[in-house]
Amino acid sequence: MNGAEMMALAEELYPLCRSITGDGVRETLRTLGRWNPVEIVEVPTGSPACDWVVPREWNLREAWVKSSSGEKVVDLADSTLHVVGYSVPVHEKLSRAELDAHLHSIPEHPSWIPWRNSYYEEGWGFCLPHAQRAALPDEEYEVYIDASLEDGHLSYGELFLPGRRDEELLVSVHVCHPSLANDNLSGIAVSTAVASMLAGRDRTLGVRFLYVPGTIGSLAWLERNRERTGRVVGGLTLTCLGDAAGLTYKRSFAGDADVDRVAKAVLADRAAQGLGESELIDFYPYGYDERQYNAPAFRMPVGSLMRSRHGRFDEYHSSADDLSLLSVERLEEARDVVLEILGRLDRNRRYRSLAPEGEPQLGRRGIYRALGGGGDPAALQYAMLWLLQCGDGSHSLLDVAERSEMPFGQIADAADLLEEHALIDRS
Amino acid sequence: MNGAEMMALAEELYPLCRSITGDGVRETLRTLGRWNPVEIVEVPTGSPACDWVVPREWNLREAWVKSSSGEKVVDLADSTLHVVGYSVPVHEKLSRAELDAHLHSIPEHPSWIPWRNSYYEEGWGFCLPHAQRAALPDEEYEVYIDASLEDGHLSYGELFLPGRRDEELLVSVHVCHPSLANDNLSGIAVSTAVASMLAGRDRTLGVRFLYVPGTIGSLAWLERNRERTGRVVGGLTLTCLGDAAGLTYKRSFAGDADVDRVAKAVLADRAAQGLGESELIDFYPYGYDERQYNAPAFRMPVGSLMRSRHGRFDEYHSSADDLSLLSVERLEEARDVVLEILGRLDRNRRYRSLAPEGEPQLGRRGIYRALGGGGDPAALQYAMLWLLQCGDGSHSLLDVAERSEMPFGQIADAADLLEEHALIDRS
Amino acid sequence: MNGAEMMALAEELYPLCRSITGDGVRETLRTLGRWNPVEIVEVPTGSPACDWVVPREWNLREAWVKSSSGEKVVDLADSTLHVVGYSVPVHEKLSRAELDAHLHSIPEHPSWIPWRNSYYEEGWGFCLPHAQRAALPDEEYEVYIDASLEDGHLSYGELFLPGRRDEELLVSVHVCHPSLANDNLSGIAVSTAVASMLAGRDRTLGVRFLYVPGTIGSLAWLERNRERTGRVVGGLTLTCLGDAAGLTYKRSFAGDADVDRVAKAVLADRAAQGLGESELIDFYPYGYDERQYNAPAFRMPVGSLMRSRHGRFDEYHSSADDLSLLSVERLEEARDVVLEILGRLDRNRRYRSLAPEGEPQLGRRGIYRALGGGGDPAALQYAMLWLLQCGDGSHSLLDVAERSEMPFGQIADAADLLEEHALIDRS
Prior knowledge:
The first copy, chain A, is an alpha/beta fold. Chain A has helices at 3-13, 23-32, 96-100, 130-135, 181-198, 216-224, 226-229, 258-272, 290-293, 328-347, 379-390, 397-404, 408-420; strands at residues 39-44, 48-49, 52-53, 57-66, 72-75, 90-94, 103-104, 126-127, 141-150, 153-161, 168-174, 206-212, 232-238, 248-250, 279-281, 302-306, 350-353, 392-396, 424-426.
């Protein structure tokens, strides 16, 4: 799935009216189903989701504010951001002042529509450009929100690509934001591309893709999959991957999990190749669903890959976070980095030498240059020697790559060769 | 107890003739009793004190050196430093040369009287300014020391302010120096102020104040309180807190005990607020009673707070260490730092989250801003999120403060709020 | 054994035709026997040596290449390097082109003879200066190698100097190189000097000296001495110690073993005394027999002391590595550093205080300055205080030297004094 296809997917999903529940999410997941066999899981209202409870399902059909002349001065049909998420139905007439108590705008960016929600406290409201709000004359207004907030379901998407072993990797994106492109159609598109490209490949570890409403969605998955959390040896949340900033990797809570070390190495390798600088930041308890996966009871080693950080770019949670923020090249770069991180995690393993008493005789097995006395060995042989020397069962390929300062791929190739010759196996 | 009161206390104690035993110490402890209910503990001569034995009690009444003309050229009445501590009684006539073998002076500071002792080896001597010594004519002298060195007691003071738990904090000062102001009337005054200010406060941990003759006094306490040593979760010796140098904290033997981390943070916070630079130094086996508390068999995590270091300031152990070295402001600063260190240790605790599966729903408990989608959370909420994320039972509030780089007080406030809402408890 | 004697030993050994087996090694070991009672161990062909098998014994008597005029253009009698090690017997006539397939030379250094081997793959060949090879006319050549490759033995030398305890130190040098001076007659000479100087000394730890053919020799020793490997608390391989480069210490696999810390300190002390800079490098799985001793199944803490690194100096494995590379002073310096490293390891020990409750009363035992109240204590006393303070049984003298930043010798002297006075013992 190339960048143009990722961009087309983002464009297709952009108009849908998503929230943490409702048909917008369902429609989004169905669209993803055209690329990968994403299963849609429906969790009934009232179901436990760890410390939380699945809320009522919210669906929004029509909403507007009419001036006294009958003109629709604000209309859901123009932007999914116009209506505060989880607004209750309303149809009444109000004075300008009464209306204003239900309006949200951004004074610093008077032409942008903010995005607001009131998931867990009943209310209603409209979002609009501050310039427009300021210009609303002092007259009577008619407000109309045709929404339902009723028992229903929370929907999330799940796709599992099995591996040869029980352990698995996790890729999770939030799917609850309406017409916001960077946050997080970019993450949805990259995850979809990664899944479609991994689908046909042989792999050691399973890879699980989750498309979840933020917080409540990952908690709902965790509630129903507690026994799986221990199998996850590494993972990523993907968010804000289309804007012009360089890549940033946010570490897991552990800070030195394999995924953290692999992400660091992958990004450093790219920098060394002149493919752009990136940033590593420590875990902090704000952001996206990595907070839930890393919670004390689960401690899944899940980091987060992003460009701009949530809340740290001007267009964040506003109508300015539109499709123009994304680029084909940046989505592809993010996809490649995710594939490389997952790929290294898949090849990584703890191992032990099966000939730990000194250096085994490689020559007898046909994997040593026969004529002794020469200069430095070739890289593959050197990688084999490092692996054998470290092979006490406590080291992973990643450990050896770090200690030897050799490329991970070279270490992994050497490990495969040694395994073929029965000189190492998994520890 | 403010700085002026601390200064007045130092002035009152200054003339007393203290040593490691004797009435000078008793009188000092009785004076402290006017501020706090300090218990005076009397340990008989010959009692074991860990590897040591409590020595005979020494009391000095009168002492002088007379010239052939009958003039007292050196007189105890002028300075408690004139007589070598633990001098045995003497009354004889000597030549100038014979006398000189019993004299001590400081050539580099010809007008200062040094302070010398001979606790554990019998002898006698006089200390005097080097200029005076050099000018003594070659004639016969009469020396007289009316002292007693007899079975009696070693006296130390103890004050315990109980807390709600069995663990306790320790504050220890040495009280064996005669008319030396910085070393250690300053420490005695600060400890007295801290005790008087803590007396009325609610606290979690007990606080024990010890007023002990150096080395032998703390060893006598340890001998009689072995079972208590394990309850001490942190402590300080206080010494040389009145001079003009910045504050120095000497770490406990462990080096990274809670008290070390708290002291470092408190001093760093003061520097960040422009309240002056300070220094952190590693433990070394010289100094004051922290050496005994940190001994291998006890390993009580006791650091030391000081300004100038023992032996590292010109006036050290001489008559120049007089009351002019102290200032009201510096005593108050030291008092405040000690209170802050003890206060943070008192609030610190290991804890665990009672809702460890993901982030608990703060909104349901009324402690979350209800309207989602906004910018960075307020500091209190951020502190709560850090606490909940770290709440696997292995973290203390101090750990969370360090990891989050948030002020300890903010973390502790958030912890109190979470505890009120049954979201965390002590682990 | 002084530098001149070491140099004379190297000169005597230089002409011998050594390989991994054969009479050249035997003659070498017999020569060492004149200095120290080195036992010659004979391991039969076909014996297991960990993952390897002892090869057939190779002995070379005569070898040459004759031009069509009957002139010996290459002759073993001129240099032991002329014949590829482990060449099979041959006597035939070849064209210039056929001959060339069996020739080895170094184009970058046209006047040097390279050193080549074919231990584990049958073949034969000659090594010669590139200039000579290039000038060989296109005619018929007669080649003759009178060698035997038959069942026999691998020979290695072993010398054990017992200590008072079961633990031991290891010094290992490779003895398989023919007329190469720096690599490794220098190591052989230094090891011989060290052994002869240690022979008469009292010591705590045994010291084992191995003189082994590279790789296969140390593996043969390991195969027969598995139960001893656990007793080795530190060791060194010695190699390339005569050339003009500064000293380099290569760490053991562990990286922070006692031998690594001692070697670091010894070299730092020399630098501080202006005796020359040195380098510390991490373990890597190339070099000499330290690879075998540090293998996963053994993990003997063996580092390596050298000047130039194998493969990193121009003359490496060529006729230019001749006796002119060595100097008396550099051999003596290396000898002294090895003696110092072994000496500190011998004195080092874990210990515990026998008076761990506070600081014991040194005065009662006559090891404290009697008059209290003075300035900083003397270094010996300070070292005693450090030892007593650290004496919880988990510290070694090396730990205390590092923590106190005092010279190891001072700490060890203080430890001996404390042990005499029954204040510490081994833990």
